[in-house]
Amino acid sequence: MARGALPTKPPKNWWLIGGVTAFLLAMTWWSAEGIGFSLIELMCNITGGGRLLAESWPPDFSYLPRLAEPFLETLNIAIIGTVVGGVLSVPVSVLAARNLTLGRVIWFGDRNFMNILRTLPDLFWAMLFATAVGFGPVAGALALSVFTIAVISKLWSESLESIDMGLPEAVRAVGGTWLQMLKFGAIPQAMQTYVSYALYAFELNVRASMVLGLVGAGGIGMILETQRANFEYERVALIVLVVLVAVLIIEEISEAIRRRLA
């Protein structure tokens, strides 16, 4: 190839592209048949959605002062769930990292423990804890703690597996213990990603805490379910708007912190 000439693009494999497209279309059609999806019924019932939106607008802003206490409760649930779950996720993440774990048996057990936490949804944990400790914010905080462990441990264990093992091995070579190897060699390398994942988990927990309230786990979600059951759609719209604004603000703050850490 002559100097300065642009590299030629490899020819497209149209057979492969067509085959993948046909497969995706076939799977989509098969899935739609499986759930009984009908485009005609959807178009016929879409007027019901439009009527619901009309009944929800404008939001009932006179109800806003009554949302202060349940919204603060929602934030409290999210904060407790993030802090408790974030702390407990550290040993779970470390033992799930192949290069840092104490043994294959411990790694295998910890990995399966993480899989169980991720398999069961946060609503299940909320219902479980609501049955165990009663309906209210405590059940929501416990459920989000488990949810946070599942989120952070999965992501951070993979980050720990990709660190440079030169420094941890040097700590062990001079007689350092396993805990000293973690403290001085491994964890500092991945601390920035841990903070990023913790902030991400907090954003998720603010959203999830509203959903958990639907099953009696406290917070603004309980108010949302009450107003929905009473067909107070203007108040439902207000609650959704409040949570949306809060989530956007939290995302901006988290993004600013991530940029400072980068």
Automatic annotation (TrEMBL):
GO-annotated molecular function: ABC-type phosphonate transporter activity
Recorded family membership: Belongs to the binding-protein-dependent transport system permease family.
Lineage: Bacteria, Pseudomonadati, Pseudomonadota, Gammaproteobacteria, Chromatiales
Gene3D superfamilies in UniProt: MetI-like
Location, primary (coarse class): membrane
Native species: Wenzhouxiangella sediminis
Transmembrane regions listed in the UniProt entry: 12-30, 75-97, 123-152, 204-224, 236-254
Subcellular localization, as worded in the UniProt entry: Cell membrane
SUPFAM superfamilies per UniProt: MetI-like
Any single Gene Ontology cellular-component annotation: plasma membrane
Protein name: Phosphonate ABC transporter, permease protein PhnE
Membrane topology term: Multi-pass membrane protein
InterPro entries, sorted: MetI-like, MetI-like_sf, PhnE/PtxC
One Pfam family hit: BPD_transp_1
Highest taxon listed in the record's lineage: Bacteria
Domain ABC transmembrane type-1 as annotated: residue spans: 71-254
Record flagged with keyword Ribosomal protein: no
PROSITE patterns xrefs: ABC_TM1
Keywords from the named record: Cell membrane, Membrane, Transmembrane, Transmembrane helix, Transport
